[in-house]
Design brief:
Elements (H helix, E strand, L loop, with lengths): L1 H36 L1 H17 L5 E6 L1 H10 L7 E4 L4 E4 L7 E4 L5 E7 L4 E7 L7 H18 L12 E5 L5 E5 L1
């Protein structure tokens, strides 16, 4: 009789070991699938890239960051294009989320305020850097949007064709390298 109880104890230990092994590998596969989808990596890369661009900018600069890869991933994950990036000037943070998670947040150190918009037509994030504490004239922003709409309606041109006489413009490509032009 004692032998029978030992066999049951050994069998129970084996079953518990197999169950724990299956759970471990299921969790491992879950995390590998998440990393393989690239969403987590793109969130981290773009939140850092945007924060670095803001840190190295100066007031009066207009910047444009290509976010077409973020649109691809957000579309496949069912996230609205207008909600993938959030820039908080009070906390100095950039949040990027392109899947069902809360996304990645990265802090920037610049004390300047950032006015931003997502141009879905050209698939770019457009940033305008202004002095902190100064009120930005909302009419100027609306006027720029009206110019953009007029240019887009007339010839299908994008916002890069609209000239801004008093600002520096920088376009950031996929690798995060910018080309600075004085206009």
């Amino acid at each position: 009789m004692k032998n029978l109880w030992r066999k049951k104890g050994v069998l129970m230990n084996e079953v518990i070991f197999i169950i724990l092994t299956v759970v471990f590998f299921a969790l491992l596969l879950f995390f590998v699938a998440r990393v393989a989808s690239g969403s987590s990596n793109y969130e981290k890369i773009y939140s850092r890239k945007i924060a670095y661009v803001i840190d190295f900018s100066k007031p009066g600069m207009n910047l444009s960051v290509d976010i077409s890869k973020l649109f691809e991933h957000s579309d496949s994950n069912g996230i609205a294009r207008g909600e993938i990036i959030t820039i908080d000037n009070e906390k100095n943070t950039v949040n990027v989320h392109i899947d069902k998670s809360k996304g990645r947040t990265y802090a920037f150190f610049s004390d300047y305020d950032v006015l931003w918009s997502i141009n879905q037509r050209s698939e770019k994030l457009e940033l305008q850097i202004v002095e902190s504490g100064k009120e930005q004239d909302e009419e100027l922003i609306e006027e720029d949007k009206e110019k953009e709409d007029l240019v887009g309606a007339e010839g299908g041109a994008n916002t890069e064709d609209v000239e801004n006489e008093n600002a520096d413009t920088e376009t950031v490509n996929e690798e995060g390298v910018g080309n600075e032009n004085d206009e």
